[in-house]
Write a structure and sequence with these properties.
There is one protein chain. It contains 5 helices and 2 strands; from the N terminus they run ααβααβα. By secondary structure, it is mainly α. A two-stranded antiparallel ribbon has the order 1-2. The longest helix has 25 residues.
Length: 130
């Protein structure tokens, strides 16, 4: 029994005596430059996108329409821009009139709601009065 105990204690001491190797990460100058470049890349890309797309947010330098260049009309239930265009400019192409109304009011589409006030060009309101 002594020989078994002796072998076990020898095996235990041999594994415990093995040195633990600790290595430190050592970076070369080139490695530090690569790491810094990779860390700065998202910031550079974000700044580039921000600079290139910032021009779209600027307002135009136009003064806009003068106060006397348009009249307002309230949309009645059942009316559309087509029917309004035919009423205010019966001699003109309704598509051209609708296009001018949409641009003047900065509408995203030609859909209007009842009770909505829209501006119409004064040239067409003069035609409707004749």
């Amino acid at each position: 029994m002594n020989s078994i105990t002796a072998t076990t204690s020898t095996a235990t001491t041999s594994t415990a005596a093995a040195p633990v190797v600790r290595t430190r990460l050592r970076m070369t100058t080139r490695g530090r430059r690569v790491l810094a470049t990779l860390a700065a890349l998202p910031v550079v890309v974000a700044l580039g996108v921000g600079i290139l797309s910032s021009g779209g947010a600027l307002a135009s330098g136009d003064a806009g329409a003068s106060a006397g260049s348009f009249d307002t009309v309230t949309v009645m239930p059942g009316e559309s821009l087509w029917s309004i265009a035919q009423d205010i400019a019966p001699d003109s192409d309704p598509r051209d009139v609708i296009d001018e109304i949409v641009r003047l009011n900065a509408l995203s589409s030609s859909a209007v709601d009842a009770g909505q006030s829209i501006a119409i060009p004064a040239t067409y309101s003069a035609q409707a009065g004749e």
